Amino acid sequence: MVRGIYTAASGALVAQSMVDNVANNLANVNTSGFKQTLMQIASAGSLGIYHLQTKPGQTPDRATPGVSSATYVGQLGTGSQIYDTPENFSQGALQRTGNPLDVALAGPNAFFAVQTPQGVRYTRDGQFLQDANGNLTTQDGLSVLNAQGRPINLQPQGAGAGQGAIAIASDGTISEQGRTIDRLAVVQFNNLTALRPQGDNQFVDTGQAGPAASTAGVQQGMLEKSNGNVVRSMVDLITAERWFDANERVIKNEDDATNLAITQVGKSQ
Predict the structure, then answer these.
(1) Owning domain of residue 67
(2) Chain segment 9-30, per-residue pLDDT in tens
(3) What is the total count of domains within the chain?
């Protein structure tokens, strides 16, 4: 019975994690370039159950040294566990904004590179800004990197610089009045499962992603919307809540059964 409580508790914990995951996806449904997190659930390890045949006159608590035979009964499951939480990198819908510093990527495996205090990180959020020094940054003030891995400045030295509208070509080349300023770093990865989220809509390469220059089209004046599905997320939320409730009832029933067994044993003595 105690094992039943632990098994049901593991299911309740997984259901709670599922609720948290769905809530995070719903909270970011309007975040540009957001990729929803999936949850893979697997069975926890199982235990082999054996019937031990003891020698006559031997007490159960000293059975192991005097076992004469052991009959295999079967496997006892120990509940469920979270196997992995991969991202769904499918392409989100593109929305036209008309802002010249808003850019979107066509293709699910391409990313912009940004400089953070922890190193280079990757994002699909192309909602960029120009700071007071002319640097191209994210909404959080992080520097957007060029193809050489350096910060991009939109006000290069030269006569007439900074006087015209910024144009961004499909290959990421940034220009002003026909004068090339820089080029956005657009990176693709051969193994997207090796990219892991690190908060703030950013991803980090764990070392196995295989980065390479991308030919994905850069589209100016557009943003990629979140690829989250609100209807699907609501269904998953209801499923997780029902799963939690079912495991909670199992825990209560197991606890009541244990209490009844203890009470009956006390009465029999």
Answers:
(1) 51-77
(2) 999 999 999 999 999 999 999 9
(3) 3
